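Sanity check record (used in CI):
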Amino acid sequence: MIEENSVLTPEEVADILKIAKNTVYELIKRGELNAYKVGKKFRIDLKDIEEYKNSSKRKKSSTSESRLNQNLSSAISNANILKSETISGSGLVICGQDSVLDILSRYLEVHPKGVRALRSYVGSYNGLYELYNGTAQIATAHLWDGDSGEYNIPYVRRMVPGVPTIIVHIACRMLGFYVAKGNPKKILSWEDLKRDDITIVNREKGSGTRILLDEHLRKIGVLGTQINGYERECISHLAAASTVARGGADLGIGNEMASLSVKDVDFIPIQKERFELVMKKEDMLKGPFQAILEILQSDGFKSELKGIGGYDLEETGKIVAEI
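Expected output for PBP superfamily domain protein:
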């Protein structure tokens, strides 16, 4: 239950309104959503979200239709630019949501053999789908297979069939449960999801975290529909942790770093996951792909990740599989 005087982050607002975080920033920029800064971070009062929703309802349908057409035109234009830049060789598309990809993209743009990286903020499953269909050149994955206990390799074999691929390790991250401070429900393992007194907040379909949950549910013989809150989705680790902190759920699943950014949440470590890049083997001799390997293996890149914290960098830059 969110209190009337709650102060929310843009990520939490995006979760409430079921929109992308970038859309929240655009609403703030256009003056449609009131916000203020604490240091360098935006914060939004819950009452201002309600005012925005009510204001939107009062607008004439013609205005809404006009804005929809403008947004559609903009989306088509952006898609054409993305397609044009990728086809012309002036950029490549990297699928994934982790902030480490922002750092990789920055290094890639200034590397002598690098290019501009275009980001597609989709989950692991959809990223492999885009790689297979040729709409992206690089996918990132953290997909756990419950039968083999392996990460990524079984999914690449199934989802990119007949296409020789290379899997390059980025880092390991600790995954676990977000629970309220003090863990009042005493949640410690996947088996606790068999209890009927626990409500969860889930991740979106196609995300590695959602697939991890579904695989473990399958192994313990529980259907998702039997769990309170299973159908409620959020689009980031931070949003899941924030939902638990606000009392909106007893349990969320995500990485340890997000829990450190949210008050009144404890983190119960459950499983170390492998976060890796997947590329087509035919591309590996091209300059930008060689640049990516050099960046991942460089001391500068590893030092920046080490400074952020939360990443195990022991195998960073290592080619772990050729499929």
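The first helix runs from residue 10 to 17. If this sentence no longer matches the regenerated tokens, the check is flagged for review.
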